[in-house]
Amino acid sequence: MASSILVTGGAGFIGTHTVVQLLNQGFKVTIIDNLDNSVEEAVHRVRDLVGLDISRNLQFHLGDIRNKQDLEKLFSQAKFDAVIHFAGLKAVGESMVHPFRYFDNNLIGSITLYQVMAEYNCKKLVFSSSATVYGQPKKIPCVEDFELKAMNPYGRTKVFTLLPLNMFYLLLFLEEIARDIHTADPEWKIILLRYFNPVGAHESGKLGEDPIGIPNNLMPYIQQVAVGRLPELNVYGHDYPTKDGTAVRDYIHVIDLADGHVAALKKLFMKEDTGCFACNLGTGQGTSVLEMVTAFEKASGKVHLHLTMSIFCTAAHYVSLTNYCFQKIPIKFCPRRPGDATEVYASTDKAAIELNWKAKYGIEEMCRDQWNWARQNPWGYKKPPTN
């Protein structure tokens, strides 16, 4: 009998791609999502991609994990063998401006989910954490046993939030909460996946990242400039101590990331005592912002043109060379954003050993699939404006 999996936040970018992989591998999937940063159209496209027969194994419920009644109604109607927990906000910049919103969504929602899971004896959890927990690492690549120093509220809701309360501090760790749950009840099996920078899209071009408003992440920002929705790409920080002055990240194809979640889920169903542990999902390679822009230009056909003009002045006996660079994706350099690290990429050894998982796709495939999604869906899941 197929295992039944609850996917919180399953209508989102990473969630939909993971649901496709789960369904294609024979799992029954139920999505709960409040559509705060996603649309139900994405779920319809998941059904189309997997086909009529397989799509019968997919259920969608509009609900909010912060609402215990929503979760209890769901758990009372079906027995779930495991949960993949994606639900939460994720924009670093926004988390600096609206920290309480992040504490509410990412912290309170998770605690409520864990309580209901315990009540209904569902004790297998894949938690979608983040490389943000590493903050500004003292050395790279990032290894899972590093001391965690998240630099912004998004990261702190993944690791801790420190709240003043009458001279006392309430120290809440989302990852530590998971460990405490397992310590108190060893029947729990929990894998904490610290993924790096997900990009790309489904190869069909039917699923992709469709943020609301101006994108917070690099690749959807680039694609919106490429299709003409935004005038230029804002590059935050060009004075980092890196090879081209821009920040370096470990970009991972969303399909590789989805497969990593499936691999973690399968680990939970093994008879061995999985316990509770953290695992990185990344490629182990760092790529700068400008390198990513160049790769996307190549994939989309929007390539830099470099022209050189020579001006000879015989009277002064000198040659003046003027270089002109016409960028198809115009760039505006901006100051660094608070909370952004200089260089972050993963150590992937543990994922290879524990999950038998390794990223398969490189930057070229990421940009190819991202552009395919953008080309087919210049306005994302929305209809283009009529005016």
TrEMBL record:
Obligatory cofactor(s): NAD(+)
Protein family (similarity comment): Belongs to the NAD(P)-dependent epimerase/dehydratase family.
InterPro entries on file: NAD(P)-bd_dom, NAD(P)-bd_dom_sf, UDP_G4E
Pathway membership, UniProt: Carbohydrate metabolism; galactose metabolism
Catalytic activity: UDP-alpha-D-glucose = UDP-alpha-D-galactose
Entries under Gene3D superfamilies matching the protein: NAD(P)-binding Rossmann-like Domain (3.40.50.720), UDP-galactose 4-epimerase, domain 1 (3.90.25.10)
Pfam families linked: GDP_Man_Dehyd
Keyword Cell division attached: no
Species of origin: Deinandra increscens subsp. villosa
SUPFAM superfamilies: NAD(P)-binding Rossmann-fold domains
Keyword Signal: no
Enzyme class: isomerase
GO-annotated biological processes: galactose metabolic process
CDD domains reported in the protein's UniProt record: UDP_G4E_1_SDR_e
Protein keywords: Carbohydrate metabolism, Galactose metabolism, Isomerase, NAD
Residue stretches making up the NAD(P)-binding domain: 6-369
GO cellular component assignments: cytosol
Single GO MF annotation: UDP-glucose 4-epimerase activity
Name of the protein this chain belongs to: UDP-glucose 4-epimerase
EC assignment: 5.1.3.-
